[in-house]
Amino acid sequence: MYLPGGLNPPFARLMVERGDPHERGACFPLEPDRVILGRSTASFCPDLAFASLLVSRRHCCLELRDGRWTVRDLGSRHGTTVNGRPLTQGPSVLTSGDRVGLAANVVLLRFSLAEEAEQTLTFGDTRPVNGPPRREQVVVDTTRKALIVAQAEVPLSVKEWRLLELLYEHRNELVPYAVIWPAVWGERALRNGIPDVGPDELSLLVYRLRRKLGACGDVLKTRRGQGIILTV
Length: 232
Known about the structure:
- By secondary structure, the protein is an alpha+beta fold.
- The chain is built from four helices and 19 strands.
- Helices cover 17% and strands 31% of the residues.
- The strands form five sheets. It has a six-stranded antiparallel beta sheet.
- The model is unreliable at 1-9 and 115-136 (pLDDT under 50).
């Protein structure tokens, strides 16, 4: 999405202050321009999923409208708040530092824009982040099966490496979920020709890989209902 006059939309993130299964301090870029928050079930997986049964499947939605991010409750059973104020009718415009609560703050998220979003990446991380991330800081060594970030090798699990290697082979291209599932979970039993993978397993795998990429985590870009792109 582009704004009138050639301006890019504001870069925004959500940082988890509370919300299983995610760790405190986990950061999620808001992409594309509409993100649904909720709880995964066998038939539905939101863009950002939480485990609590108090969270509705389609709990709330963050949207980019006319250059500003807004949050709107989607008729959830236990409600959505912004800085402790319940959302009633229509969307509420978010400003950097606002806290979005789901189900009486069972889930609590901090919204941040631009420069502040970069600062949130250092939460719980002992390594300093000096300036914005650069793509050349990420190296995928397929010979040694190693991920190198800012000249330091990062340990990966088998499935994390399978996903990264597949995305790297098709870097800067959209890799469909139908291609990712058998490549990463090839040992699983098949259901209608596709590995039987839980709805939140891929989301959690992408989350862990982004965490290990650190300040360069935004090289992984998801396209809801379509697939993932590695931009290196």
